[in-house]
Amino acid sequence: MIRAPEVYPLDSSARLECLEDCTYVLLEPGKDPLGFGERVQGYHAMMEERNRAVGKALAQGLTLRGGQIWVDVGTGTGAMVEAIRETAQEPLWVFGVDQARRMIQHAWERQDPSFAAWYIERDVLRLPWPTAMLDGVTALLVLHLVEDIDPLLHQIFRALKPGGTFAYAVSADGNPFVRMIMRQLNGPGDFFQRGQKRIHDALLRTGFQIGATAVYRDEIRLDSPEAMRALIQSIGGPASRGLREDVSPPPVVERVFDLIWAFKPGAF
To answer: InterPro entries this protein is in (predicted)?
Structure first.
């Protein structure tokens, strides 16, 4: 039996709403400027399993211990949260943060009840991050969407314990999948232009040190150009611009991602 939501006012513009023993938390009205929420079903059908595989590769490089606290920023439909769950050998705390309400509701509804995650609906830049409390932060295929990345990295750095991990996967510069999408878009194609070098430089400016890197490759193989267009349309930002009709996408395209495991200097 599902209980009625319990709602706890926080201030004039926010609320704490608990569903199912507080595994899902709404902190403020949802905002989704990139349009991911309205395409959640298509995104899940077309991209979820593919992106979860990237998350699993990233999770394999994490040191996960019982009782740790991890936060996944831009969690979307929860692919990285699931990857952490499947990798961890002991119970730990995992929080997924995203501002797209439909995406995060989808993540909460699909989660394994034996491994409850806490989902927070809020812009990560407006989240009141703690100081030196988190063991790790992850970001799966999201940093290229952040216009001004320095404030986010500073918040993450402050929230991590000394020795804490920041692990992320991002589209590699020159990714064939991204180049293909750019050719399909109507209007300026700047959606994925905030590349790995810019993120890498900002990471070092913040004070992080890079512990390890890897390259992840996979291939999307579909039956037709129409199927590839449907896949592109499932991705929020590009789909909101519309697709060109005079360019036919290939049915097969490679994806290339950089996996980065960085850490805050110091020791636990």
So the answer is: Methyltransf_11, SAM-dependent_MTases_sf
